[in-house]
Amino acid sequence: MTPQDYEYLRRLLKDHSGLDLSADKQYLIESRLLPLLREFDVPGISELVRKMKAGSPSLIAQVVEAMTTNETFFFRDKVPFDNFRDVIMPEVLKARGARKSIRIWCAAGSTGQEPYSLALCLKEMSASLAGWRVEIIATDLSREVLEKSKAGIYNQFEVQRGLPSQLLVKYFKQTGELWQISPDIRAMVQHRQLNLLHDFSQLGVFDVIFCRNVLIYFDQDTKINTFGRLADAMESGGFLVLGAAETVVGLTNAFKPFPNKRGLYQPSAVRVSAELPREKFTAMAGR
User: Fold this and answer.
1) Residue 274 pLDDT > 50, yes or no?
2) What residues make up the domain containing 234?
3) Does the predicted TM-score (pTM) go above 0.90?
4) Are residues 132 and 263 in the same domain?
């Protein structure tokens, strides 16, 4: 891969997905695009780039998907799900008691382990939710991972990573070496393909947004603008859950940290915008 090829791929990935690769990540591109090289029977990255430049939207989409498909597993990092069960849901149940409805968005649903972990938490507290309407929306840039999420089928390695054995036995059916999550759990999650760089106002507003391990790959301007748009998509008193290495501190006052709970934030009562103007960000994302 030539320096010119790498710079082309860096710009393309940033414009299409927000992924901001540093100058020393050639190895990451080479490793993640190897399956595509085999699929298209090309000997190297330079030849793949030539095909992309020749005009192949489907190939570009496949390259972006290959580079942005990230690792996930059930109840990943544990703390966010403890907070969901012990902090978020009691607060939301109290605040939304009059309307008895809750909307939850997993903004990087990937192959489904995160939204299904939330669904399992809710199923286990179903006695408290009798008569409530609960929506879980799972979105992702990649259509391929969303299809796997919809199917809810996982191999032995995937179900052994983070999933308590009692939940596996209770809510999954084994067929050979594969496990499929039960239809009633799958029915709790709606799936939609979505690019976080684009307008997501059509999704409506939410009480809880999980946006974990996504913004860490964005540059500062993109993070700031995305936080502003996430705040616009959140009900007053709602909750934003970020990854362990992510924070709003120093980037936006649209959210404030929830006291003594790592990775948990709420919309600020008073919001003084320090974001990029929307028209500027739109122009950046569309380059």
Assistant:
1) no
2) 79-267
3) no
4) yes
